[in-house]
Amino acid sequence: MRLMGLFEAFDAFRKTLWFRLLYFALFGIILGIVLPRTFALGCVIILAIGLAHFGMPYLIGERNVKRMALFALYTTLIATTVAAGFVSSSYLTIAEVRADADMNGFLMENGTAAPYQQEGASTTFTTTLTFPNATYNATNVMVYVLVQNVDPFGVSAKWYEMAHAPLPPLDPGDGPVVYTVNATLPSDQLHLFRFEIFNNLVFDPASQCPLRSGSDVTTITAFWERECLETGAKFLAGSPRAEAGLSGRVYGPITTSGAGAFIFSFIQNFVFMIFPLFTFGIVAMLFWYTRRARDVRAAREKPSGRQAQPGDFTCSNCGTDVPAEAARCPKCGALFEEPEPVTTATKVPKDAEAKPVPADAAKEPEPEAKVVPDDHRLGGK
To answer: What torsion, rounded to 10 degrees, do the Cα atoms 358, 361, 362, 365 define?
Structure first.
């Protein structure tokens, strides 16, 4: 009996709004936990989430499209908040990754950014460069640190020219040379960095040797394809860092606060979740249209209690059967125009001749006066 009572209580709770709010909150939390780990699936996860937005309320008997849309938005906000919490915490706990590389004989070591994690601090970038041969030295190369400032909507690049430490007298500068630069980075964005080496004709990498595409941000192969636009300008080497992390990038240095990282992650995840909402909208529209067409068809096929009468007609606007005497459609309210009276002319044969009617015949005969005998008059005897 107690078990039956629990089932009855749950069944009663299942019919309330609180059950639906709890149901979709749990769905949003699960989605938020899974979302950061499924970005790589791209279109597949977008389609899956969009279908889940429709299927989850449908499973519990929801058929109203407007309420489905509200629940989809409610679930999206919860999932975005949970995912932003996970991703922002990962940003603030990323271990420092140095930018070291050996490319075209140029050996770049101890490429660091310090401090690596500190809110609003200026950052000192340092790298130690060893040249491949006597052709290159500290006097005929330009060394820059490329910093990408990342916001939820894109990446902006900025190059900072690095200066080498003072060389000893008579030192040609072909041995290990330390390069440094101090830069103040935006505190409301995340950052990526790497070191790049050009010949001494490159004074503005942004215009002379611009990034070819978004793939140049972190991939190693993009360095081999890097081209400079001006004659004589040449890209020599670079030191990217390996890709890692939840987002596929190694962020650092971290100059934003915990709240800033959360806002960054929330906007980034919400922009991504807009696409599943579009998928849900398409599915919901198809469901609504199919259901409406079925209802209209059922209304047309439903027998009416009134028998059809001569003169009945069909409404040209919605197809409903309308009585002959109706001035307005009983379903859609369309007004009907009164038909103009049609007069039928009687044809007279051409060979028929009009015959004159005598004047006496044309007049109606007057009633004859009735003569009353004298003995029938009033007072007569």
So the answer is: 150
Question: CB–CB of 251/192 below 8 Å?
Answer: yes
Q: How many other C-beta atoms are found inside a 10 Å radius of the C-beta of residue 313?
A: 11
Domains within the chain, CATH numbers bracketed:
9-92+265-288 (no CATH), 108-253 (2.60.40)
Can you tell me the distance from the alpha carbon of 240 to that of 171, in angstroms, rounded to the nearest whole number? 29
List all residues 6 or more positions away from 144 whose beta carbon is below 8 Å from its beta carbon. Answer: 159, 160, 161, 162, 195, 196, 197, 198, 205
Pairing label, strands 177-183, 163-164:
antiparallel
Per-residue model confidence as pLDDT tens digits over 110-134: 889 998 888 877 899 999 999 888 8
Residues 6+ apart with CB under 8 A from 198: 141, 142, 144, 205, 209, 228, 233, 234, 235, 236
> Rounded distance, CA 107 to CA 109, Å?
6
Q: What is the pLDDT of residues 324-345, one digit of tens each?
A: 778 888 877 778 776 555 555 5
Q: Quick check: helix, strand or coil at residue 114?
A: strand
Torsion of CA 182, 187, 193, 198, to 10 degrees: -50
Q: Helix, strand, or coil here: 199? A: strand
Cβ atoms within 10 Å of 105's Cβ, excluding its own: 13
What are the Cα distances from residue 91, in Å, to 29, 117, 188, 249, 252? 20, 10, 13, 10, 9
Amino acid identity of residue 267, one-letter, is: I
Rg (CA), the chain: 45
Structure-model confidence comparison of residues 149 and 334, the more confident one: 149
Q: Which residues lie below 8 Å from residue 184, measured CB to CB, with a gap of 6+?
A: 122, 123
Q: Cis omega before residue 323 (within 30°)?
A: no
Q: What is the number of other CB atoms lying within 10 angstroms of the CB of residue 371?
A: 7
* Residue type at position 222: A
**Alpha carbon of 151 to those of 67, 154, 270, 345, 352: distances in Å?**
34, 6, 13, 86, 101
What H or E segment, with its residue span, contains residue 10? helix 2-14
3-state secondary structure of 270: helix
Rounded to two decimals, what is the model's pTM? Answer: 0.62
